[in-house]
Every structure is written in structure tokens, then in C-alpha cells.
Design brief:
about 5% helix, elongated, 1 helix, mainly beta, Immunoglobulin-like, about 110 residues, 9 strands, single chain, five-stranded mixed β-sheet
């Protein structure tokens, strides 16, 4: 079971901007994920919860609002999705995460 992010890091202007990243499931099992941010005041993530099919991918949009330049991070927790799951938030709450992927966030002046 593995999950990767492409690109693996995010640089956005401190004045605000967006970046799109692809989460790639290289494994044979459907995954469920939850994304946590070290800075919920200046970053918005969409989607926060989701499923990724085996050998599939999911686009994630990172939006930064204006703020002081600083370093932050996103941590994506993931694990095997329950077979009958349709609600990613509920499904994530029912599993024990099997791994994490960290995306460094850099806001530049």
C-alpha cells in the first residue's frame, strides 16, 4: 500500500495563490485519505477526505490566502478503504491509518 504526491512540495505566493497536486495510489487496494494542515488560517484544501481507486489518482487543490511568508506542511493520512464505503469522512473515521505523506508548503514573498 503506497501513496505519493506529485509534485511532492508546494510553493505559492504569500499574497495568495493555488497549487494542484495529484495523489497517486500505486497499490492494489482502494485507499481512503484525510488531509491535515499545520496552518488552517491561510490554507484551504479541497478535498479534505477522499477515496483513491487502485492504480488511480485524485487531484487535490491547495489554496493560500494572503498572509506573512512562512513554512507550513500538509500531512495526508491514508489507509485501506472499507469495501462498502461511500462516505470518505465516515470511512476514514472507521479505519486505523496505515501511513502518511507530507507535502511541505512554502509561501514566498
Amino acid at each position: 500500500m503506497s501513496l505519493t504526491a506529485d509534485p511532492p512540495a508546494c510553493t505559492v505566493p504569500a499574497a495568495g495563490g493555488t497549487s494542484t497536486h495529484k495523489l497517486v495510489n500505486a497499490g492494489a487496494d482502494k485507499l481512503v485519505f484525510k488531509i491535515k494542515s499545520s496552518n488552517n488560517n491561510e490554507y484551504r484544501i479541497s478535498p479534505v477526505f477522499g477515496f483513491i481507486d487502485p492504480s488511480g489518482s485524485k487531484d487535490v487543490t491547495i489554496t493560500r490566502t494572503a498572509g506573512a511568508p512562512k513554512e507550513d506542511k500538509l500531512v495526508i493520512h491514508f489507509g485501506p478503504a472499507p469495501a462498502d464505503a461511500t462516505d470518505a469522512q465516515a470511512a476514514f473515521g472507521a479505519i486505523t491509518p496505515a501511513g502518511t505523506v507530507t507535502i511541505p508548503l512554502s509561501a514566498t514573498a
